[in-house]
Structures are given as C-alpha cells and as structure tokens.
Design goal:
The chain is of the alpha+beta class. Helices cover 21% and strands 34% of the residues. A hairpin with a 2-residue loop joins strand 13 (189-197) and strand 14.
Length: 288
C-alpha cells in the first residue's frame, strides 16, 4: 500500500512539474498538489515492514575502515571481546545516547551452545573506527582497528550461530524507515543472515554471506525496517551455512562484529519537499 502511494505521488509530481514549466503555477495548483502529497506521504503503515536492501553480503574491502559513528547516526554497537564461553555477551562499545536498544549476543541455530570471543587478533583483516566522544564511555577505537566479534562456541558445525535483538524503536511516518547495517565475518565458513520481527514468522528475510578461508574479512548486510509500534522486537541471527570441509579447514565459525543504523527517508519524502519548494517559488513569482 505504501509503495503504490509513493509511485502514484511521484507520477503526480512529474505531471505537476511538467505543467509548471509551460504555465505559471497558480495558488490553487500549489494547494492541490500539497494536499495530494500529504494525503499519500502521511498514509500510516498498515503493519511492520522488513525488507532486504542488499540481497547478499557485501565485502568492505574497498573501504576497509568502517566508521560506525558515520554510519550509525541513530545508534551503533560493537563487540570486541576475548570472553570465554558464556551464555551472552553484551556490546563492548555503544553509541552515547543512541536511540533504541541493542541486546547482548546469544547463541543461535539448532546446534545449541554458548558464545565466546577470542584473543587471536591476527586472522581479522578489516578495521573499524568511531568518534571517541560518540561512544557512551568515551572509549577510543582499538589501535589496530580490529573488532573480534562474538561467535558460537560450537565450532565446525552447520547452523551454529549467534543472534541479537533491536528493540525500543518507534514506528516512523512520512515514508521513513530504519536502515540497519550488520557487520559480520567468518573463519573457514560461509554464513547466512536471518532477520525477522519477533512473533511474525512471515516477516523472515535472509541474505547469504561470503565464504571465508583463514582470513576474517568483514562483510556487511543492509536491511530496511519499520516497526508498527515501539513494542516490536527485531531479531537478527547469523548462522553457519557452509562449514570448511577441505583438508585442514577446522575451527569453522561465523561472528557478528557490529551493527549500525540510521533513519532514511523514502523518495516520497523528498517529493513532498520538492512540491513545497516549487510551490513557494511560484508564489514568489506571482507576487513579483
């Protein structure tokens, strides 16, 4: 319903702009277009929405230094831990005054187990940074830029993964949505990202990760999300899809390193601004 409204709104804008290039826009034209834009762009969402923005994982190799402060203008969280086996691992760094709540990482998948970090920083390749004052405890990014992440202690096992939830996000109106970037890695394995709105099995979306050998390159997945109320909970899980099977490829696992999200407007929002801008321009010309 929202997509149809957006398409129709864009069509009306194109017609309106074409007409304005031939004749002077009247005040009535401006009012009618403005009402049209408001009626469609402010149409309330009928239900929570969750869609893929990237269809599969994207490597961060072209820009290996991921700036979480720049990407997570609304909120971000990172896991850089050498923790041993435990039931959950809270984010080690979070955005100061971030909007929404990012939960601890717990185990995921059919291979029930615990989660852990690592003291081995030599396998990781891509680096992360953030603005020190943007972190809740004024913690600076690690000198080596490495985020170990958190992974399932059950190694060499398909469908052994990790998960976390994002909660306390208000429903957005005016064609806006939350753009959520999840940063993951793998060691001698390929992962699969599964995201769903808790309590709504039909909302499940998935993206395949990239197979990694002994180097833990970072990859990211992007999804678009809009809850229908602040009580909605978004679950994000990353599980082993393919484990290393060739000679010597042991200790296969995947990990979640960080998450960062911001609010992004849909085209209808920009269209509304365009209408008001063109309308006010027309009024000024008439007065002149």
């Amino acid at each position: 319903m929202v997509l149809r409204s957006t398409a129709y709104l864009v069509l009306k804008i194109q017609i309106g702009v074409s007409e304005m290039t031939q004749t002077k826009p009247t005040f009535c034209t401006f009012v009618l277009l403005s009402i049209f834009a408001c009626a469609f762009s402010l149409t309330p969402l009928q239900a929570a929405t969750l869609t893929n923005t990237t269809t599969s994982a994207v490597s961060t190799l072209p820009t290996p230094n991921v700036d979480l402060s720049a990407i997570g203008t609304l909120n971000w969280a990172a896991w850089d831990t050498d923790s041993g086996s435990t039931t959950s691992i809270a984010p080690t760094q979070v955005k100061a005054a971030g909007v929404g709540t990012v939960s601890s990482i717990t185990e995921s998948g059919t291979a029930s187990s615990t989660v852990r970090g690592s003291t081995n920083r030599t396998s990781s390749v891509d680096t992360f940074t953030w603005t020190t004052s943007d972190e809740s405890s004024n913690t600076a990014a690690p000198v080596d830029g490495i985020l170990i992440g958190a992974f399932n202690t059950n190694l060499d096992h398909s469908d052994a993964g990790v998960q976390f939830n994002i909660t306390d996000l208000a429903a957005l109106t005016g064609g806006q949505y939350y753009e959520i970037n999840i940063f993951t890695s793998a060691f001698r394995a390929q992962g699969i990202l599964n995201a769903s709105i808790v309590g709504d099995p039909g909302s499940l979306i998935s993206q395949n990760g990239i197979y990694h050998g002994a180097s833990k390159y970072t990859e990211y997945h992007t999804i678009a999300y809009n809850p229908d109320s602040i009580s909605d909970s978004l679950n994000i899980a990353y599980d082993v899809l393919v484990e290393g099977t060739s000679g010597g490829e042991t200790s296969s696992h995947i990990s979640i390193q960080a998450v960062a999200y911001s609010i992004v407007p849909e085209p209808s929002t920009f269209a509304l601004l365009l209408i008001f801008g063109l309308g006010s321009l027309g009024l000024r010309r008439r007065k002149a």
